[in-house]
């Protein structure tokens, strides 16, 4: 799989497809021309993407974060020169991606991780404060929660791998999809759940619907809505549905 990502706001549909591919053992090449790097704390390690889970799942990352060289001053207009520099940057990224694709290892699908009965992986949104009512609802329904650890870890890459493994082993996934779009990690894990037939809940306590001619009203990207087993808006409904 070749996926184009450009932060800080990453397309949730692309992130969902990355999770789907990763769960099936498909090699993943990520392309970005983002000139920024990211960290989860002011002094934390720099990451290529706002969520370290993406960096963890990538087989190869093609990052070309600098524009191409400048045209001579006597060349065309400054707008043409700027466009040419952008085009050279994109061509460099494509060339690197092709080279990486030609040298990828053969896909080696992993056998499905055995699921732990009664466990629920909780994926919070990094865009708001923690929601203790979600964990309370999961516990009240009789499930044992495992909560994402990478957002506060000193080593977010290692923690992201731990989160991925924990999510795959859980019987149930509850992902908080609050934000302008579903957060990247939530989208990745919902995609992985869809690939593996894992029951999943997209939790969206503040719903804003969008409307378009010929399409049903939707609160999230339709790929997210269709992949999740349930879309739930209150912790009471969450507890009831999980029982």
TrEMBL record:
Residues 105-131 are annotated as: Disordered. InterPro entries: Nucleoside_deoxyribTrfase. It comes from the Bacteria. This is Nucleoside 2-deoxyribosyltransferase. It comes from Streptomyces telluris.
């Amino acid at each position: 799989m070749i996926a184009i990502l450009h932060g800080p706001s990453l397309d949730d549909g692309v992130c969902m497809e990355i999770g789907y591919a990763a769960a099936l053992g498909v090699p993943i090449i990520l392309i970005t021309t983002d000139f920024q790097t990211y960290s989860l704390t002011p002094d934390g390690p720099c990451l290529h993407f706002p969520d370290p889970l993406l960096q963890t799942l990538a087989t190869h990352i093609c990052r070309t974060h600098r524009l191409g060289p400048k045209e001579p001053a006597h060349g065309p207009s400054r707008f043409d020169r700027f466009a040419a520099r952008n085009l050279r940057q994109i061509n460099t990224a494509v060339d690197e991606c092709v080279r990486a694709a030609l040298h990828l290892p053969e896909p080696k699908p992993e056998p499905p991780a055995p699921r732990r009965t009664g466990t629920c992986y909780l994926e919070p949104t990094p865009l708001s404060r923690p929601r203790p009512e979600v964990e309370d609802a999961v516990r009240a329904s009789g499930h044992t929660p495992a909560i994402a650890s990478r957002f506060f870890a000193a080593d977010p890459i290692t923690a992201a791998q731990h989160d991925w493994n924990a999510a795959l082993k859980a019987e149930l996934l509850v992902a908080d999809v609050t934000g302008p779009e579903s957060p990247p990690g939530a989208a990745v894990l919902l995609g992985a759940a869809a690939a593996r037939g894992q029951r999943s809940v997209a939790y969206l306590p503040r719903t804003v619907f969008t409307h378009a001619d010929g399409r049903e009203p939707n609160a999230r990207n339709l790929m997210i809505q269709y992949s999740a087993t349930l879309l739930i808006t209150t912790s009471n409904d969450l507890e009831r549905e999980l029982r």
